[in-house]
Design a protein that fits this description.
Helices cover 38% and strands 15% of the residues. By secondary structure, the chain is α/β, with parallel strands linked by helices. The chain has four domains: 242 residues, Rossmann fold; 40 residues, no CATH class; 155 residues, Thiamin diphosphate (ThDP)-binding fold, Pyr/PP domains (Rossmann fold, 3-Layer(aba) Sandwich), CATH 3.40.50; 162 residues, Rossmann fold. The strands form three sheets. It has a seven-stranded mixed β-sheet, sandwiched between helices. It is globular and about 105 Å long. The C terminus is likely disordered.
Length: 649
């Protein structure tokens, strides 16, 4: 009977022998490879923390002791050891989340899977334990060398170190990588710790040797021991942590369960803040992952478990790939274009640019705030930075975008990958806030391409702006077919002409939802409701021609893959009010709540962003509208030129 089937909770680990623990680690790796190969998910990070997770749950008593995971994509082993073995629908609707989830287990604490936050959480929980007289409960924060490149981690360390007697264990899972190899001064320091013989081993050998030396041996050893701090800096330079007031233990072999347990027990007994530095291998035990130089199978789709090769291949273009190809072309044409990434070179499509122009790419680590301010400096220095980042992670740098980039009118282009519903990564990764939070930034221009051709064109338009920030946002996954424009009104593309001189509905389509809007218009047409469909292309600022065009319709409908609160629909409604255009507006978008994980199409259907759903609701609204004479409005000129059909003005 496999050992894994006997584990329904952490205390089941207590009765296993060292040999059985090693067997269990092997079974867990086999389970992960087989299961994640079927569903996709974060494979490499979890293969690297098997022994570490076992040791944590043997030494600490979760959930009374809080084990916190930074980012949380490495929590699959934790899920297995806390009774969650059904991985059949991992990251799918109704299945296990790919991150810790309070709804799944009392053992899960942090659902926010944005990096570098765990130490702040740990600081707060440790303070709460102290104030409530529960200092016997331990707080364990598992962070990574990549997460330590984020400024929030160091803000937290500064506060943690201030309380010398508040128990808190910080486990640094050091695999030399975040998505890609960790960079920067901290990475260099950790590398020094990894490759230097430990101080304790050196001191033990020195004690043995000197104690055998007559007369001077013992006094010399005591002198050296008294110079412990300086000697440590030479032999194993962990002084950076100890200068902060943090006890340092390590480095520890992160795949030796007994060594890990010994280190964690020492840290547990210390009674103050302790860093336990563990060296692990991302993708441990799975050769295809170890051979993957890009990211060691950080995140995979459905794969063949034996080979690690994708189980499905598709010729359809990917949004990220389209951007990656176009930024390389722009780099060849313009020497002033430079690229910035926050530890995600390959996921955001900048790897090809980096190969061709290595000196023009800056990986700032998991530090979006710094990356944004640095971009302002690059722009002020005469370059045009393109900061490619997941839409959800731009949230972290809003103040810098507002006060450093926009206030100073810096020509910086932000490329937002995975905007809108991203699917299996869940609430912290849906990029559904950007078009709301960016609406209030003065001077900023925001583009939402509907297809690959528009992404290429609008990226080029964005980098031409040198006196204000520009944003280009696009979805995750495959790009749909090209949606041709039939003409233009102002700067807007007309995607569907009305079948009458007195159209009923103006549908304003935002970004990748163009096909959904065209489908809705077809459904409306079959109900006898005529519809115009336009793509504004640049959704901020609102096109000057839009109020005039709206005035020629009985209703305006906006459709966006963003939260309805404060989104494009809200901005257009305000523009209509400012222009004294009294036309009803119905905005369709994402509800102002955290959406669960699942396939993108499933989630869009669940919130009503499909052609039939939109058409059904619009039909009901139109039926309640009073009949009105539009002749006076039709006589008014429409601001902006239209090319393609005189019936629109």
């Amino acid at each position: 009977m496999p050992l894994l089937t006997r584990i329904s909770g952490p205390r089941d680990l207590d009765r296993l022998t060292p040999q059985q623990l090693d067997q269990l680690a092997g079974e867990i790796r086999s389970f992960l490879i087989t299961s994640v190969a079927k569903t996709g998910g974060h494979l490499g990070p979890n293969l690297g923390v098997v022994e570490l997770t076992i040791a944590l749950h043997r030494v600490f008593a979760s959930p009374a002791d809080r084990i916190l995971w930074d980012t949380g994509h490495q929590s699959y082993v934790h899920k297995l050891l806390t009774g969650r073995r059904d991985f059949s629908r991992l990251r799918a609707s109704g299945g296990l989340s790919g991150y810790p989830s309070r709804a799944e287990s009392d053992h899960d604490v942090i659902e926010n899977s944005h990096a570098s936050t765990v130490l702040g959480w740990a600081d707060g929980l440790a303070k709460a334990n102290e104030l409530r007289g529960q200092s016997h409960r331990h707080v364990v924060a598992v962070t990574g060398d990549g997460a330590l490149t984020g400024g929030m981690a160091w803000e937290a360390l500064n506060n943690i170190a201030a309380a010398k007697d508040r128990p808190l264990v910080i486990v640094v899972n050091d695999n030399e990588r975040s998505y890609a190899p960790t960079i920067g001064g901290l990475a260099n320091h950790l590398a020094t710790l990894r490759t230097t013989d430990g101080y304790e081993r050196f001191l033990a050998r020195g004690k043995q040797m000197l104690n055998r030396t007559p007369v001077v041996g013992k006094p010399l050893y005591e002198t050296l021991h008294g110079a412990k701090k300086g000697l440590k800096d030479v032999i194993a330079p962990q002084g950076m942590f100890e200068d902060l007031g943090l006890k340092y233990v390590g480095p520890i072999d992160g795949h030796d369960i007994q060594a890990l347990e010994s280190a964690l027990h020492r840290a547990k007994r210390f009674g103050g803040p302790v860093i336990v530095h563990c060296i692990t291998e991302k993708g441990r035990g799975y050769q295809p992952a170890r051979d993957d130089e890009a990211d060691q199978f950080h995140s995979v789709g459905v794969i063949h478990p034996d080979t690690g090769l994708p189980a499905k291949t598709s010729r359809a273009a990917d949004w990220t790939d389209v951007f990656g190809e176009e930024i390389v072309r722009l780099g060849r044409e313009r020497e002033d274009i430079v690229a910035i990434t926050a530890a995600m070179l390959r996921p955001v499509g900048l790897h090809a640019f980096a190969q061709e122009f290595p000196e023009r790419v800056f990986d700032v680590g998991i530090a979006e705030q710094h990356g944004t301010v640095s971009a302002a400096g690059l722009a002020t220095g005469g370059l045009h930075p393109v900061f490619a980042v997941y839409a959800t992670f731009l949230n972290r740098a809003f103040d810098q975008l507002l006060m450093d980039v926009a206030l100073h009118r810096c020509g910086v282009t932000f490329v937002l990958d995975r905007a809108g519903i991203t699917g299996p990564d869940g609430p912290s990764h849906h990029g559904m806030w950007d078009m709301s939070i960016l609406q209030c930034v003065p001077g900023l221009r925001l583009a939402a391409p509907r297809d690959a051709d528009q992404l290429r064109a609008q990226l080029r338009e964005a980098v031409e702006v040198d006196d204000a920030p520009t944003v280009v946002r696009y979805s995750k996954g495959k790009v749909g077919p090209a949606v041709p424009a039939l003409g233009t009104v102002g700067g807007m593309d007309v995607l569907r002409r009305p079948g009458t001189d007195s159209p009923d509905v103006l549908i304003v389509s935002v970004g990748a939802l163009a096909q959904v809007c065209l489908e809705a218009a077809e459904h409306l047409d079959r109900q006898g409701i005529s519809a115009t469909v336009v793509d504004p292309r640049w959704v901020k600022p609102v096109d000057e021609a839009l109020p005039g065009l709206a005035a020629r319709h009985r209703m305006v409908v906006t459709v966006e893959d963003n939260a309805r609160s404060g989104g494009v629909g809200s901005a257009i409604a305000q523009a209509l009010r400012d222009a004294d255009v009294d036309v009803p507006l119905r905005d369709f978008g994402l509800p102002a709540r955290f959406l669960d994980h699942g396939a993108r199409d499933e989630l869009l259907t669940a919130v009503g962003l499909t052609g039939p759903d939109i058409a059904r609701q619009v039909t009901g609204h139109v039926a309640r509208l009073p009949q009105q004479d539009l002749s006076a409005q039709q006589a008014q000129p429409v601001r902006g030129d239209f090319v393609g059909d005189d019936r629109l003005g």
